[in-house]
What does this fold into?
Amino acid sequence: MTYVGQDNDTETIAVIEAAAAVFAAIGAEVVPVKVPDVTDVANAQMAYCQV
It folds into this structure.
């Protein structure tokens, strides 16, 4: 889960990975997905939303 690991604390990553493991244990198929980089959009949003 490399996307989850970017700029997140280790506790958050551990909880998300544990949840994925629980879903897999009860029969869910956990598959990797590609998430586009949203850095530029997030930065633009911050510029528009600042007070």
Q: What stands out?
A: The chain has three helices and no strands. The first helix runs from residue 2 to 5. The chain has a mean pLDDT of 84. Residues 2-49 form one domain.
